[in-house]
Amino acid sequence: MATTETSPLDEETLPADNAEGDDRDAAILEVRNLTVRYGDFTAVHQVSLDVPRHKALAIIGPSGCGKSTLLRAMNRMNDLIPGVVVTGAIRFDNRNIYDRDCDPVALRRRIGMVFQKPNPFPKSIFRNVAWGAAINGYRGDLRELVKSSLRAAALWDEVKDKLHQSALALSGGQQQRLCIARAIALRPEVILMDEPCSALDPLATARIEDLIDDLKKQFTVVIVTHNMQQASRVSDRTAFMHLGHLVEVDETSRLFTNPKDRRTQDYITGRFG
Which of 60, 167, 192, 242 has its CA 20 to 30 A from that of 224? Predict the structure, then answer.
């Protein structure tokens, strides 16, 4: 993978969470000239955009346009795919995550991921939330960590009396919020969400959307969604992709009411997609 930076990204060099003086409008992720190829196929072409801190950025576009590939590049999940080649840079607090000295495991503790389908471990609700923190040497009160993470994921009141029951017994919407709590327990700075509501019913979807609005108070959220109404409801900024290219990115209200590019207008008005 081609990189241009040489500074390492590890837990010792990362800034402290919620450091005083943070500019909440500054970019926490800076994507620069990012290209992702799978063999001879280029999924993402020379994309550059900023992800502002403590905001929600939605990435929309038709199927196969590179949305999920771009999202997964933000915490190097694409590294797990054989033959992938990534060029360009993504700076996380001014450090290139594609530097050869970057530890992707440490990175993913700071930039968490919630997948399209809920994927709870076949363990108790408590152990699902505590597991990642415990194996990473968390020395605090695990019970309090589980409680606060479940509260942040708007799930505590529903499961507080059955923490030692199997997580697999929860409904689909509850399982997805459990997966969000599991990500929160690692205290990331960014939470990536890849179509988090596509497998959920409308009621569960509404709960997740309300949760995203709350999560922005503590975290930065980047969400890939095929649902333009959802993007308009939950995001502060929206990026539109087409055929692997970033067509435009703007404030959500402006992009949906006055897009600059004809392709964006055609997509959001249903002329293609």
Answer: 167
